[in-house]
């Protein structure tokens, strides 16, 4: 791996993967803003490897030249968004998922765009977010949809699992940095929604109380973050896609909770990564 960095880079960086596409450039701009807001350095990485393919030396040399030019352009984008930001450039011979997973071990956040450059790029980079969310050691932001919406809320999707507190920690922090409202959405899976409907209003009230209790400690820690609680009876796909139309960021978990039974957040993540109308932040957790 070839590395260049600006002087004085300290602390965990925001890492952004690029491939030269328009969405990769937007991901760099978004990541630079995130890094600047947290006084963190930015690492821009281009991974040249393709899984299962051994590259020839002449191809590697050419790809490294292209990568360095690509990284220089990305650094210029970052500097326009956040003047004075500390930028590290990296070229990796590993595949994008391998390179970004390794860098996530020491990162604050990993950022990628939603599509690649051309038909092959779309096929390769389109699989990167899905590969990363199950392997990354840190949250993965997939930049897509509307960007930089002034006054828009941050939305977080909960499923009642053990990872909800991890999600709330990230979501409250993101809302505080943006000085935005936080919308906390507890959307039931399809089978849970049907069961709740049959049990009636009593069970719904209990679920609303549990949701309020889950955020009470975070409200005390972040008193300046306004909170809206949404306890939704319809499935998480519909609810979270709807909120992505008005949010500036959608925060979700990795979807390991077994209780969501196939209509859970694992499949929901796939839908959100490809169809949400705002950036999606997927937080690794310890769901049951």
Task: Explain what this protein looks like in three dimensions.
This protein has helices at 22-37, 57-81, 96-104, 118-133, 164-178, 190-199, 201-221, 236-244, 265-275, and strands at 2-5, 14-17, 42-47, 87-92, 109-113, 140-143, 154-158, 182-187, 227-232, 249-253, 280-283. The protein has 288 residues and is an alpha/beta fold. It folds into two domains: 2-143, Rossmann fold, CATH 3.40.50.620; 154-283, Rossmann fold, CATH 3.40.50.12370. Strands 1-4-3-2-5-6-11-10-7-8-9 form an eleven-stranded mixed sheet, sandwiched between helices. Helix 9 links the parallel strand 10 (249-253) and strand 11 (280-283). Residues 1-9, 117-125, 190-194 and 257-265 have low confidence and may be disordered.
Radius of gyration: 20 Å
Largest sheet: 11 strands, mixed
How many separate domains? 2
Can you tell me the CATH class of the largest domain?
Alpha Beta
Question: How far apart, in Å, are the first and last alpha carbons?
Answer: 37 Å
- Residue share in β-strands: 15-25%
Structural class: alpha/beta
Number of strands: 11
Q: H/E element string? A: EEHEHEHEHEEHEHHEHEHE
Question: In what order do the strands lie side by side in the largest sheet?
Answer: 1-4-3-2-5-6-11-10-7-8-9
CATH names the topology of the largest domain as Rossmann fold
Q: Mean pLDDT, rounded to whole units?
A: 81
Helix content: 40-55%
Give me the CATH architecture of the largest domain, please: 3-Layer(aba) Sandwich
Family: Belongs to the universal stress protein A family.
Domain UspA: 14-144, 154-284
Protein name: Universal stress protein
Organism: Amycolatopsis suaedae
């Amino acid at each position: 791996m070839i590395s260049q960095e600006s002087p004085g880079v300290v602390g965990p960086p925001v890492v952004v993967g690029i491939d030269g596409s328009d969405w990769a450039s937007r991901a760099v701009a978004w990541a630079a803003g995130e890094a600047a807001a947290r006084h963190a350095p930015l690492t821009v990485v281009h991974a040249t490897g393709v899984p299962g393919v051994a590259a020839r030396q002449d191809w590697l040399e050419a790809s490294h030249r292209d990568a360095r030019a690509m990284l220089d352009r990305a650094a210029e984008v970052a500097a326009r968004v956040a003047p004075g930001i500390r930028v590290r450039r990296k070229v990796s011979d590993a595949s994008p998922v391998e390179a970004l997973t390794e860098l996530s071990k020491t990162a604050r956040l990993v950022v990628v765009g939603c599509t690649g450059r051309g038909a092959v790029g779309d096929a390769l980079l389109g699989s990167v977010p899905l590969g990363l969310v199950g392997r990354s050691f840190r949250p993965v932001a997939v930049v897509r949809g509307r960007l930089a919406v002034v006054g828009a809320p941050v939305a977080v999707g909960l499923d009642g699992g053990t990872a909800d507190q991890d999600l709330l920690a990230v979501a409250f922090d993101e809302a505080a940095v943006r000085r935005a409202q936080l919308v906390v959405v507890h959307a039931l899976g399809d089978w849970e929604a049907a069961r709740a409907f049959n049990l009636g209003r009593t069970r719904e009230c209990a679920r609303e109380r549990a949701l309020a209790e889950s955020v009470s400690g975070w409200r005390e820690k972040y008193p300046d973050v306004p909170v809206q609680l949404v306890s939704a009876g319809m499935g998480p796909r519909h609810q979270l896609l709807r909120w992505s139309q008005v949010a500036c960021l959608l925060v979700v978990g990795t979807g390991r909770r077994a209780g969501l039974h196939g209509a859970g957040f694992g499949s929901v993540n796939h839908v959100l990564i490809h169809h949400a109308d705002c950036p999606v932040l997927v937080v690794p957790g310890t769901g049951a």
